[in-house]
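Student: Please help interpret what follows.
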Amino acid sequence: MDRRIALKQLAWVTGGIFLLPSCDFSSENILAAYDKLQVNEDHRNLLGKVVETILPGGEVVGARELNIQDFLLVIANDCLDEESQQRFIKGLKGFDAYVKERFGSRFETMDQANSEKVFTEIVNAEDDDIADFKYFLDTSKRFALQGYLSSEYFMTEVMPYKMIAGGFQGEKRIDPSEKINING
């Protein structure tokens, strides 16, 4: 073998080895559980901020701490029809860019007051150009409330649910500090 050819090949291999780490051939990491929606971790985090805006924490645990965004994604992935899924995803994927363009900062970086203001303004807007964003926020609100009200935390800590009814009392004084059963 000729030394010149060997040195050229060695130079090419060495250059390739140094160049290879700088090349990123990976695709966007799609969350496997939501295959129909094709969402990634950034979309999931944005949805977490949306549900936190709808049901913030405080005295009671908020929606983000209960991972309601995962419930919302599962319901959207499994229960919405294809057209509704497309509208939901179009709204989700374009939402942060729209908010940054319209309001000057990303939705995830806003404090609670500003995110509530943005949420309310978009939901109450009459503009047909943002119909997908309105659909995304309305659907998120509906499913977030459904997930929160049926969560184990809510059913055991906030409004205790009694599986078996009993102890009927025809007349009872109402104590304002008592937790009531909202399901009857």
